[in-house]
Amino acid sequence: MKKEDKQRIIGQIAANLQEYDHFYLTDIATLNAAKTSKLRRECSKEDIKLVVVKNTLLQKALELLDRNYEELYPILTGNTAIMFSNVASAPAKLIDKYKTDKVPALKGAYVQESFYIGANTLKDLVNIKTKTELIGEVIALLQSPAKNVISALQSGGTILHGVLQTLSEKESSN
């Protein structure tokens, strides 16, 4: 491969790394052509970009970026495919769906500004919530006490109103 071609590929990989918030490093080498095509179709449905890369070119692309990705360098061995996604858990759920085949095998991931190394981190990655889900949970938690207070005040108000009405009726009948 010519040096110019390598530089172009490194630039493309670096651009993808900057475009997407999260990426997973996987090994899909044992998939045959039909299963690879099926995986690519499923990735496309989930807005996941799947790219097979050379480890040395990926490492050079990572070195070009502002962030320090050294934790990923030891796993850049063998065959590597990158799953780019803007949804943190989408690639993990897709990989988990294939866990009986053990392919794609998770090598590592960079998700929500954290590194996950090894297949044993897949369960954690599947359960990661999106920013929107977390904000929704916080809002629900904040609303719950307010709803309880309002409900108590409303029910207390009807009780107080009932007591006052009974007292006023008692006084008027006397």
CATH topology category name of the largest domain: Alpha-Beta Plaits
Return the domain count.
Answer: 2
From the helix content, strand content and strand pairing, which structural class follows? alpha+beta
CATH superfamily of the largest domain: Ribosomal protein L10, N-terminal RNA-binding domain
Distance between the termini: 106 Å
**Helical stretch tally:** 6
Low-confidence stretches: none
- Main sheet: which strands, in order across? 2-3-1-4-5
- CATH class value of the largest domain: Alpha Beta
Overall shape: it is: elongated
Total beta strand runs? 5
The CATH architecture of the largest domain:
2-Layer Sandwich
SSE string: HEHEHEHEEHH
How much β-strand is present in the residues?
Answer: 15-25%
- The whole-angstrom Rg is 27 Å
Average per-residue pLDDT, rounded, comes to: 86
Helical coverage, percent range: 55-70%
Q: Biggest β-sheet, characterized?
A: 5 strands, antiparallel
List keywords for this structure.
alpha+beta; Alpha-Beta Plaits; about 170 residues
How would you summarize the topology of this molecule?
Layout: H1 3-19, E1 22-27, H2 33-45, E2 49-53, H3 55-64, E3 80-85, H4 90-97, E4 105-111, E5 114-117, H5 122-126, H6 131-173
Antiparallel strand pairs: 1-3, 1-4, 2-3, 4-5
